């Protein structure tokens, strides 16, 4: 089964545009779960341009599925994890103020840092996932440093999907086979959408979780949030022969 975690950063972006509390991020998270989402993802960036520090604590009180917090492991992020104890922490190598995540970790260059951080987070009782590109050498290193899961950075898959989906998925399918053999859980995210998600799921049978924000929230403008979540869940359902 592949779980759907809804990334609600964009709900906070919309709220912050007017400085008030509409839409209410906590209510939206509760509704996503009520409509079938199996997790809630946030990426509290240091500039708080969408999810704020207060949101991180407020959401902890209501999320009953899987709370997944993404971010660069600086002191602020580690304190949030220690205070809030989400089910999963996803480590992302973003420098501050980047427009959006645009690369995975170099697990060779950052081996010592990531190894220490993984240990620290696991000691808090939190599952760790590392945002990574589908490069076998980097994934082997990720397994060595002790992460529980990897999150495959799927932007390259998403951008090539329309022109050549077989080629687009190739490296991801191969990477997920290796990761699975190495005992790693497999998540995926970035630019996944209603169009490209079913094929990814079909080609990566061991896919544990997808986190989807930008496309899903955009789809919700047309289909409504409940229908949209149901549409994504349908795409992720196992196809029985
Ligand atoms: C880690 C990751 O893949 C990102 O997709 C991220 O959560 C999106 O962040 P923004 O919503 O700030 O673009
Ligand atoms: N980890 C990826 C994520 O949470 C959402 O990415 P996107 O769907 O907003 O591109």
UniProtKB/TrEMBL annotation:
| Pfam families in alphabetical order | PdxJ (PF03740)
Q: Entry's Gene3D superfamilies?
A: Aldolase class I
Q: State the reactions this protein catalyses.
A: 3-amino-2-oxopropyl phosphate + 1-deoxy-D-xylulose 5-phosphate = pyridoxine 5'-phosphate + phosphate + 2 H2O + H(+)
One GO cellular component assignment for this chain's record is: cytosol
Q: Where does 3-amino-2-oxopropyl phosphate bind?
A: 7, 18, 191, 213-214
Name the residues that span the membrane.
none
Q: Is Cell wall biogenesis/degradation among this UniProt entry's keywords?
A: no
| Key words of the record | Cytoplasm, Pyridoxine biosynthesis, Transferase
Class of the enzyme per the UniProt entry, highest EC level: transferase
Q: Where in the cell is it found?
A: Cytoplasm
Q: Where is this site: Transition state stabilizer?
A: 151
Query: What GO molecular function terms would the record report?
Result: pyridoxine 5'-phosphate synthase activity
Among InterPro entries, the record links this protein to: Aldolase_TIM, PyrdxlP_synth_PdxJ, Pyridoxine-5'_phos_synth
> Which pathway does the record list?
Cofactor biosynthesis; pyridoxine 5'-phosphate biosynthesis; pyridoxine 5'-phosphate from D-erythrose 4-phosphate: step 5/5
Name the active site residues.
43 (proton acceptor), 70 (proton acceptor), 190 (proton donor)
Supply the EC number(s).
2.6.99.2
What's the domain of life for this entry? Bacteria
The GO annotation for biological process reads: pyridoxine biosynthetic process
Family statement: Belongs to the PNP synthase family.
Q: How does it assemble?
A: Homooctamer; tetramer of dimers.
Its function, per the record, reads:
Catalyzes the complicated ring closure reaction between the two acyclic compounds 1-deoxy-D-xylulose-5-phosphate (DXP) and 3-amino-2-oxopropyl phosphate (1-amino-acetone-3-phosphate or AAP) to form pyridoxine 5'-phosphate (PNP) and inorganic phosphate.
PANTHER family according to UniProt:
PYRIDOXINE 5'-PHOSPHATE SYNTHASE
Q: What is this protein called?
A: Pyridoxine 5'-phosphate synthase
The organism is Marivirga atlantica
Question: Quick one: which gene encodes this?
Answer: pdxJ
């Amino acid at each position: 089964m592949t779980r759907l975690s809804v990334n609600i950063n964009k709900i906070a972006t919309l709220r912050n545009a007017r400085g008030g509390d509409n839409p209410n991020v906590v209510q939206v998270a509760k509704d996503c779960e009520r409509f079938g989402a199996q997790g809630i993802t946030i990426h509290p960036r240091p500039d708080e341009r969408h999810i704020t520090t207060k949101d991180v604590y407020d959401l902890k009180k209501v999320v009953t599925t899987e709370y997944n917090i993404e971010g660069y492991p600086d002191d602020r992020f580690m304190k949030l994890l220690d205070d809030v104890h989400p089910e999963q922490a996803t480590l992302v190598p973003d420098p501050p103020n980047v427009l959006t995540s645009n690369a995975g970790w170099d697990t060779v260059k950052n081996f010592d840092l990531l190894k220490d951080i993984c240990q620290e987070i696991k000691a808090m009782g939190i599952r760790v996932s590392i945002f990574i590109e589908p490069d076998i050498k980097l994934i082997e290193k990720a397994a060595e440093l002790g992460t529980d899961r990897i999150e495959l950075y799927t932007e390259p898959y998403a951008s090539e999907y329309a022109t050549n989906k077989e080629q687009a998925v190739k490296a991801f399918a191969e990477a997920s086979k290796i990761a699975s053999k190495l005992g790693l859980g497999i998540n995926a995210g970035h630019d996944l959408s209603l169009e490209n998600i079913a094929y990814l799921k079909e080609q990566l049978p061991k896919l544990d979780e997808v986190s989807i924000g930008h496309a899903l929230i955009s789809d919700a403008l047309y289909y409504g949030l409940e229908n949209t979540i149901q549409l994504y869940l349908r795409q992720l359902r196992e196809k029985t022969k």
